[in-house]
Design brief:
Blueprint: H1 3-9, E1 19-27, H2 33-40, E2 46-51, E3 70-81, E4 86-92, H3 103-107, E5 110-117, H4 126-134, E6 139-144, H5 154-161, E7 169-172, H6 177-195
Parallel strand pairs: 1-4, 1-5, 5-6, 6-7
Antiparallel strand pairs: 2-3, 3-4
Length: 196
């Protein structure tokens, strides 16, 4: 079987799958949401990225992401089959405040959210936490460590982000499949304890 037909077979969810869960991947601008979904998705992810322009230069602070050339303007979408019976649909939200109106529709029907955080820009996370809590979503925090020298301990992060004691915190690298999968597993385990 060639790679073309193998990838064509992966487009559709197997007939045995009986359950689907919607998971949001959220975080501030340029934190790695598109990268994480692309790393985990078993299908070619849907991306609504547009090139960064001078018109948005006063809105999007690129000092912390100098090489960033595109940005999500609506959503990212990926799929991950967890078992013969369960599939996760991953929806990535745009990180800029001007796209916040999309959140209400995206949050509807979501089981929970994986909140990506850049430890070098913790203050940028507060508006996102506010949105997650406004829509009543359970969440786990995945610290996407771009700079290994900028590591914070879990207690320090919890205090800085004012997290509840039972909110999971995990370090990850959105570019690494195993690390990203562990962050998602941490969220799913947290969600299972909340419904048990």
């Amino acid at each position: 079987m060639d790679s073309t037909s193998a990838s064509a077979e992966n487009i559709y969810v197997p007939d045995a799958v009986q359950r689907a869960a919607k998971i949001l991947v959220v975080g501030h601008f340029a934190v790695g949401k598109t990268t994480l979904i692309g790393t985990l998705s078993e299908i070619t992810p849907l991306r609504t990225e547009e090139r960064m322009t001078q018109a948005a230069a006063h809105l999007d602070d690129l000092r912390s992401a100098p090489g960033k050339e595109t940005t999500t303007v609506a959503l990212d979408f990926g799929r991950l089959t967890l078992s013969d019976e369960l599939v996760l649909y991953l929806f990535g939200t745009p990180g800029q405040q001007r796209f916040v109106q999309l959140w209400e529709d995206m949050a509807r029907g979501s089981l929970g959210a994986l909140l990506l955080v850049d430890p070098g820009r913790l203050a940028d996370t507060f508006p996102v936490i506010d949105l997650v809590e406004r829509y009543g979503l359970e969440y786990a925090v995945a610290v996407n460590s771009f700079d290994p020298s900028n590591q914070h301990g879990e207690d320090e992060l919890r205090e800085a982000l004012d997290l509840l004691p039972d909110t999971p915190v995990i370090h990850c690298d959105a570019r690494d499949q195993k690390s990203s999968a562990q962050a998602l597993i941490t969220l799913v385990q947290h969600l299972l304890t909340r419904v048990a």
